[in-house]
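Sample 3 of the quickstart, ligand 2-phosphoglycolic acid:
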Amino acid sequence: MRRNLVAGNWKMHGGLVANQRLLADVVLGAATLGRIELAVFVPFPYLAQTQSLLSPTAIAWGAQNLSEHAKGAFTGEVSAAMLGDFACRYVLVGHSERRSLFGDTDAKVVAKVEAALAHGLRPVLCVGETLAEREAGSTMEVVGAQLAAVLDRVGVAAFAQVVLAYEPVWAIGTGRTASAEQAQEVHAGLRQQLAVLDADVAAGVRIVYGGSVKPDNAAELFAKPDIDGGLIGGAALVAEDFLKICRAAGE
Ligand code: PGA
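Result:
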């Protein structure tokens, strides 16, 4: 049985004071959550603070991006080894904002996944189609190609360490969620793509949904057989909302 994962993607939000309050509230609420796994993806400068607040708890943390390079003259970049220094368990790779705003091509995404895996970090590999692509009927083709780019390079066995996040671009930060049926269809398709290569890995890999997950739509999404939790943006900044979503994943 896969254990649900609910992860907050704070994006470029937060501050020392606000983080302290948010994490304290999440820690308190998480004590009664049961079998699910929780994680937060925080901006780089707050990894130390997050590590110190969450180390005594079962909540994991990670970064929202990493460099594909190990070290060197790459001003402004952060390596996998540096994330390891702050005991990150996970790292987001290929979030649609990285893909669309910061030039994270499939090739870069592959290299970042490899860098993460080489340093014992579990990549949360994000895939998703734009609205135009969905309307053109090419959703599976698009997300399938994003997955294949990584799969072809790292091999299916490596996916024992990978979490997949299906995040339709049109649903991120828009208040427009994919219906539970739409999401389930894509999640099942992604799992099938892995199953063709390795049924055990496919059965074990967690595929979380992201895109305007809120307390009032979380339960329906998480009830679907191939949806193993969520990647939560806006709602992860409000402890009460985040915890409600976590509770929905624990039911
Ligand atoms: P959202 O963001 O929940 O605010 O739509 C999700 C994400 O980008 O991971």
